[in-house]
Known about the structure:
Blueprint (H helix, E strand, L loop, with lengths): L1 H22 L8 H8 L2 E5 L2 E9 L7 E5 L10 H10 L2 E5 L17 H14 L4 E7 L1 H18 L9 E8 L12 H6 L4 H10 L1 H9 L10 H12 L7 H4 L2 H7 L1 H9 L5 E5 L8 H10 L4 E4 L8 H4 L1 H22 L5
Parallel strand pairs: 3-4, 3-5, 5-6, 6-7, 7-8
Antiparallel strand pairs: 1-2, 2-4
Helix pairs in contact: 1-7, 3-15, 4-5, 5-12, 7-8
Amino acid sequence: MAYIGKRGIVLSVLAAVLVWAFRTSPALVLSPQLKEWKQSGKFFSHGQFKVFYHDETGKGEAGEVVLCIHGFPSSSHDWVKVWDGLQGRFGRVIASDLLGFGFSDKPLDHNYSIFEQASIIEKLLETLEVKEVYILSHDYGDTVALELLRRFLDRQKSSEKSAAHLRITSVCLLNGGFLPETITFQWVQYLLTTSFGPYLSRLSNLLPFSFRRSIGKVFGPDTKPTPAEYDDHQTLLRWNDGHLAMGSISQYQNERVAHRERWVEAVQQSTIPVHLIYGPADPVNTPVLLDRYRELFPRATDTVLNSKIGHYPHVEDPQSVLTAFFNFLEKVASFKQSSSPGKM
């Protein structure tokens, strides 16, 4: 009886901790960097929801616009280390926090979808009167980018006048599981898709070391985030109770499987250049991704970074990413020139 009593006490304490972790969490404090990012951005409406975005001018030609699409479970703030470099090359740089991420609204009972995220971006660009973009995307954003590419190609084939819709000049992907057969799931990624997801996320507030460990594992061995960067990542994740929506958002993994052919065919049939910038020390998107990418898309190109760069190349080695991206853009410019009317 004494044993049962002790076990009951332990279970009761554990249950109380879980309930407390689920119902309470530390107050959010924005770092100076996040405050500046939020204050310099804007919001636009998607139905009843507010979506955060950045739209800034650069030093390049006015018609040259780059659209940056972030990954999971991140935000547009991921692009801050390459932002100045992009402004030096383009006339306009745009990035939004997708619905459920960053400073955007994060409805808990929402049926999150790659298709809706693509539609939100199209609406944002229409609102900003942007007609043509270069796309730079990462992770989850890669699949959103491929859906935008598929829609662009479908319009080209149809009787619709493409001038009335978004035109895509090129697509540059960073490490992402857009080929679901190549993904090596981390245990926490699986748990987030189950009913344990909200509790696991709450416990990340109670056990910050566990949260840092799970995020840090996808970075390269020498490029781990600083303590301040970990804190910013967790703050943006928890903003508007976003950690409670991660389970719903994580269902995009099932979408990638269900609609794999739609997005694979988009690259295979692409009439515009597609490029992959790849960090090979990625435990989720291992070099199997690169091999499969080259096999499926022989006309697409790629850049392989230093062997110690992991899942977040633009955060871990921003200068190398900018160099690779700009080198790709030189090829895009040659492609545009050879494809223009009157060229033989």
